[in-house]
Design goal:
It is built from 4 helices and 12 strands. A hairpin with a 5-residue loop joins β6 and β7. With 227 residues, the chain is an alpha+beta fold.
């Protein structure tokens, strides 16, 4: 099987129309390079937060701010008072410092913040969008895109099989490529390998509003650009 070399090309999928055809500016069926090696480290020290991780934030005497926050595809969490905060590629200690600084600027004299990682996608493939059982799944052995979708229970009736995005980190950059699952199933396109840390998003009319916003927010041409 040909190893994947990701080519990112903007993520404006044009959701909602032409659901039976390939489309969008992300390059289809291109060779993709092997992703960065997973970092095996203590989550309390060296682990770098990744998109779709869930972080637990506790602010002393501020129950309305404390809670679990999922990192979105752009690497941000959204919190009351401080709004969008970049979390991806930070350690828990660095995110702790960042939130302490932001909360201390206007709202607390000496904020007491603690941050932990509740769930990590680094050692699993994450499948979301128009699938029956979205989530993160540990990979055992070589796994293809079609097999990864099957781990999530397969695609729903509203899924657009012509548009499946794979998000991957290569040399420290978040990149993406699009694939046509219908063509793969009919043997008309190769079934690419997926790796731990990959994020797969299946297009569809019921896709999360957050994913729609992210996928539509990128420039039409962003080949080999981080996001």
């Amino acid at each position: 099987m040909q190893v994947l070399a990701i080519v990112a090309a903007g993520l404006a999928f044009g959701l909602g129309g032409c659901a039976d055809k390939p489309g969008g500016p992300i390059a289809y069926n291109v060779p993709m390079g092997v992703p960065d090696a997973p970092v095996v480290a203590s989550l309390a020290s060296d682990y770098r937060i990744a998109p779709l991780d869930t972080v637990s934030v506790k602010v002393f005497k501020a129950d309305d701010l404390s809670g679990d926050y999922q990192v979105d595809l752009t690497g941000h969490i959204s919190m009351p008072l401080v709004g969008e905060v970049e979390a991806a590629n930070l350690t828990t200690a660095q995110l702790d410092d960042r939130l302490t600084q932001l909360l201390g600027q206007k709202y607390f004299e000496h904020p007491d913040v603690s941050v932990g990682v509740k769930s990590s996608t680094a050692q699993a493939v994450t499948v979301d969008g128009a699938v029956f059982k979205p989530g993160s799944f540990p990979l055992v052995g070589r796994t293809s895109l079609m097999q990864a979708v099957a781990l999530a229970g397969g695609t729903t009736e509203d899924a657009n099989l012509r548009r499946i995005a794979v998000f991957r980190t290569i040399k420290g950059q978040r990149q993406a490529a699009a694939f046509d699952l219908a063509a793969i199933r009919h043997g008309q396109a190769p079934d690419p390998q997926v790796y731990p840390g990959d994020i797969l998003v299946v297009d569809g009319s019921s896709i999360k509003a957050g994913f729609k916003r992210v996928l539509q927010s990128f420039p039409l041409l962003s080949i080999f650009r981080p996001f």
